[in-house]
Amino acid sequence: MSLSVPRRPAVLAAAALAVGSLVAAAAPTALAAPSAVTAPSAVAAAPTPPDIPVANVKAHLQQFSTIAANNGGNRAHGRPGYKASVDYVKAQLDAAGFTTTLQTFTTSGATGYNLIADWPGGDPNSVLMAGAHLDGVTSGPGINDNGSGSAALLENALAVSRAGLQPTKHLRFGWWGAEELGLIGSKYYVNNLPAAERSKLSGYLNFDMIASLNAGYFVYDDDPAIEQTFKNYFSGIGVPTEIETEGDGRSDHASFKNVGIPVGGLFTGASRTKSAAQAQKWGGTAGQAFDRCYHSACDTLASVNDTALDRNSDAIAYALWNLGAGTPVPPGKSFENTADVNIPDSPAAAVNSPITVSGVAGNAPATTKVDVNIVHTYRGDLVVDLVAPDGTVYNLHNRSGGSADNLVQSYTVNASSEVADGIWKLQVKDTAAQDIGYINSWKITF
Ligand code: TRP
Ligand code: ZN
Ligand code: CA
User: What residue stretch is flagged as signal peptide (predicted)?
Assistant: First the structure.
């Protein structure tokens, strides 16, 4: 058995999580509500988020529109309208006290630019990042896609400056180049971020198309804490939301999610058609695309839904102010058993792999994390339980997953009624004949 060192530095613990599976990334590790690990008394109330003036957001859109008009009708990668857009956003941020960085890359034979803006202050080891792609397609000015996300994010950054916000987390904003060519800019940023820097990113919020004329209110189904934050905003203003399903991975959040960073975001719909039920709850026109000017010449100021732009701009502020105030990621104490344990074929008794936990004060948290790595030729055969030191059984997996191989999965267990110290077991029983395997490793994190 190998015990990971309980007191390893937080950065290393977070780095280990960052390179974990996507499943692990989806767990509310980074932005979870304070658990038993953090003293609730240390949690300061989040400051009240401002109402973002939609007129200011529209003024930025007006600028993007003018920039496109003066540069051949678009703001696409490699075209002068893109660089002019970058210059406009950068000048605003510089004047407001941000530390801006222009990152260049080359793709499709042209120089691309990412604009990064850091708001001075906050915990350098816990960074909340928000981003939007600033490029458009060549066929039009790209005002909804994605002037809307770019402008709302810019106005939010300016609001941070106006408020003199001093959040617990360090805030960083990003405007990406060449998203329309395949998330090129954001991939470049993530790939060039040293592992130690990546692991400091507690979350990434993405805003791509947030003012579609026939708007829906879609929230990305990714990090639970980020998702819940956006849902809280919308329920507070009485606007129902749905989960975003029009192509997961089709925007820059995918670049972050792919390396294990918790992500979330907002979206008002692209070429998909609004249903009757959606028109009922949100207004607009059933049977028509959310954005019938998607990637077209008519993606102009006239194709922007001001109400959606206003609500989503305010939702961004709500998320930045609340998630930015979050307590730093508690390091968590992990214990692992990497010894293989054979799982005999059914019929046979359950087998188990023990881990001795010591040095964890009090009870286990409500967000006790269990990482399971079982090698098996048919995971649908398996019943997998976590057994607490007092014998309480928490079922993790009950024969789901059909004929797929292996069970490599993270689980969050509410083990808050269990004393943490003692011997925990991963218990596995094979319930059907013919396929076999072994417990490769498992890990419990408090
Ligand atoms: N990113 C796409 C674009 O710029 C638009 C898009 C389609 C999208 N589906 C999405 C954005 C889902 C966010 C979420 O053309
Ligand atoms: Zn887009
Ligand atoms: Ca079997």
Answer: 1-32
